[in-house]
Design a protein that fits this description.
The complex is a heterodimer of chains A (about 300) and B (about 350). Chain A is α/β, with parallel strands linked by helices and about 300 residues long. Chain A has nine helices and eleven strands. In chain A, a hairpin with a 2-residue loop joins strand 8 and strand 9. Chain B is α/β, with parallel strands linked by helices and about 350 residues long. Chain B has 13 helices and 13 strands. Classes of the chains: A alpha/beta (about 300), B alpha/beta (about 350).
Chain lengths: ~300, ~350
């Protein structure tokens, strides 16, 4: 197989087979919040030290659409979440480790439940990795990491994540592994073969070569919003959900059990933070009501069975 | 702004890493709104107006409604002072036979099974007569629900293709080797029981009170979560299974939650024994202990070979280390696993 895999520029849509469909009509289905299992934090806002071409929140060093959350700002949501029975906490951005309080935030969170950080791995130097390894070992609950990687080599990863990033990501992974951690490698399907059995095996092989004995992998489809819309084209008008797409229940969608906190309030899910209509309220109690699946990205979650959690 | 991450130093640090310098500066003063760039102020004005902002009394009421008790009509069995509880037979009739003998020796008043009679092992129909002879009080697991209703898969709840691959092999074998009569009987079982042990009432479920296939691992199931779950279920304690890894915790409220263990395959601990739990009441005190169970695992392996079951399943029985269902394990449980 050539290392330059074919680029999946039609996103996750399979548009060609169904183009010509009429735009979705009728009221959008509504999803009840069954339980608040997963509480997300946009912990570094949309600020990132990379500007990946497929980023559905268009994070970059200059994107201050959402700002970072301080520990003091997070605390009331942690307390409210615990009282509502939250099962697990997730931290994303942007790049979470740009937040100067990230380690203190994790320490506090781990008193209440398990935590997972979605990172690009670039700021995981040996010292930070050792701190995190010690934190994971000393905690009652699981501390887990997801590191994003978008190719088996610099040739495929770097055009997406930025020049020189392949090596730096692998260094970050190695530092975590040396600290006794075993991150989940998160791969998006920017190339057609990433999600195939063969593609996955190539990632596993790469990780084993790095000394990861039990490689863990999560493959996500692309969402055609933010930078990704620029890269591969936006959604088409028919790509919206209707009640008849899943009669009776929408409980398979992550928005039936999650909410996302940013510096501007509480959003329905981690995907729609750049949509003001994705915002549901100021406190978690404001957001326990049902949400209308108005957005085309909701279509991807339904069709591809996406959950942002591990 | 207190939380603002400074942009310019970072942009400088990473500039060399990017093919498009303009990408790094495109957002200066701008926000992404869907597919457009708009002035930051416009985005912030829109988000300030979006969503609900309830008053404090309304917030309190919505939160209380959200975690309120969801009553059910499950009758309460017992009272008992000593019961054995296990789950996950996975067609391991050798271990089930050993369990019935051991629990008899423990002097228990009742034996409960929390579902998943089939999977992994050989000859699923050999389980039913043993359950009946032993007077085992059972509930449905996801396997029984799937087999009784003719689902195409076990509804195990895995998300990784490698986990699902072996789950499919296991379910296909079990579904085609389980008699229609046994499947009907599975369908007649309840999905929850309430049992009084001492002066405490325990809820018995397969996965969780809300989902038959929910995974409740020790490292990812926090105390505050359980307190809400038990309040909603209106119970003094929760006994569950589904993950195959046994553990027990006393919550800050004094209530017990316990994953009761499975007897169908080892607990991913490098030992060939399997585990069941003993729940005892002495006065107001409850104790939950786990007992290792030895059984003829070589007999099981021989029968698995005859049935042509995958070597991966056999290896687990022989070594005590899981070779499948590994991707669903949280980081900590995976770390203590061989594979």
């Amino acid at each position: 197989m050539s290392d330059l895999s074919s680029v999946n520029s039609s996103g996750a849509s399979g548009t060609s087979e169904v183009s010509g469909r009429s735009p979705a009509s009728g009221a959008a289905p509504r999803v009840e919040l069954r339980s608040l299992d997963t509480l997300w934090f946009q912990v570094s806002g949309t600020v990132c030290n990379l500007a990946c071409t497929h980023c559905f929140v268009s994070s970059s060093p200059t994107n201050h659409t959402h700002e970072a959350l301080s520990l003091a700002e997070i605390e009331p949501y942690l307390e409210e979440g615990a009282a509502l029975g939250v099962k697990e906490y997730y931290f994303t951005g942007g790049e979470p480790f740009l937040n100067p309080e990230m380690e203190q935030i994790l320490e506090r969170t781990l008193e209440l439940g398990p935590a997972t950080v979605l990172t690009n791995g670039l700021l995981l130097n040996p010292e930070r990795a050792r701190n995190l390894g010690a934190m994971a070992l000393g905690s009652r609950y699981s501390l887990d990491f997801r590191v994003s990687l978008d190719g088996y080599s610099a040739l495929t990863n770097d055009p997406i994540r930025g020049e020189g990033t392949f090596k730096r990501i692998l260094d970050g992974i190695s530092n975590l592994v040396a600290a006794g951690l075993n991150p989940v490698i998160t791969v998006t399907e920017v190339y057609d073969d990433h999600g195939s059995a063969q593609g996955k095996e190539r990632f596993f092989r790469l990780l084993r070569e790095l000394g990861v004995e039990k490689p863990r992998l999560k493959v996500l489809p692309v969402f055609r919003i933010g930078a990704e819309a620029e890269r591969s084209g936006a959604y088409e008008s028919w790509q919206r959900l209707r009640e008849s797409d899943s009669p009776g229940s929408w409980d398979h969608l992550q928005c039936s059990s999650c909410r996302m906190v940013t510096d501007q309030g509480v959003w329905v899910c981690p995907i729609l933070v750049n949509e003001p209509e994705g915002k549901m309220g100021e406190t978690l109690a404001d957001t326990l009501n049902a949400y209308s699946l108005n957005h085309s990205a909701c279509w991807t979650c339904h069709v591809y069975g996406v959950s942002c959690k591990t | 702004m207190a939380n603002r991450i400074p942009e310019d130093p970072l942009a400088k640090n990473v500039r060399a890493a990017h093919h498009k310098t303009e990408k790094l500066t495109a957002h200066r003063g701008m926000a992404t709104w869907g597919e457009k760039l708009v002035p930051l102020g416009r985005f912030h004005e829109a988000t300030a107006r979006a969503g609900r902002a309830l008053g404090s009394a309304e917030r309190e009421r919505e939160a209380q409604d959200f975690i309120a008790r969801r009553p059910d009509q499950t009758p309460v069995e017992g009272p008992y002072s000593r019961v054995a509880v296990f789950s996950g037979i996975y067609s391991n009739h050798f271990a089930l036979e050993a369990l019935l003998e051991a629990s008899h020796g423990d002097g228990v008043q009742a034996v409960y099974c929390l579902g998943d009679f089939g999977g992994f092992g050989p000859s699923p129909d050999k389980v039913r007569p043993l359950l009946e002879q032993g007077g085992v009080l059972a509930i449905q697991g996801n396997y029984e629900e799937s087999l009784a209703t003719g689902y195409e898969d076990c509804n195990c709840g895995y998300t990784d293709p490698r986990d699902n691959h072996f789950a499919e092999i296991s379910y296909r074998y079990t579904a085609s080797n389980t008699s229609a009569d046994f499947k009907r009987w599975m369908g007649s079982l309840p999905q929850r029981r309430r049992v009084q042990i001492g002066n405490r009432e325990f809820l018995l479920v397969h996965g969780s009170p809300r989902r038959i296939n929910e995974f409740l691992f020790a490292s990812t199931s926090p105390d505050p979560f359980f307190e809400v779950l038990l309040d909603q279920a209106g119970t003094d304690g929760l006994l569950f299974s589904h993950t195959g890894l046994h553990w027990h915790r006393r919550l800050p409220s004094g209530r017990d939650v316990a994953n009761v263990g499975v007897i169908g395959r080892p607990a991913n601990d490098g030992r060939t024994v399997v585990w069941y739990s003993l729940i005892e009441a002495t006065g107001n005190e409850i104790s939950i202990s786990y007992k290792p169970l030895e059984y003829d695992h070589l007999g099981l392996i021989a029968e698995m070979r005859v049935e042509g079951l995958p070597e991966e399943f056999i290896e687990t029985i022989a070594t005590g280390w899981w070779t499948t269902c590994l991707e669903i394990l949280p980081a900590r449980e995976r770390a203590s696993s061989r594979y």
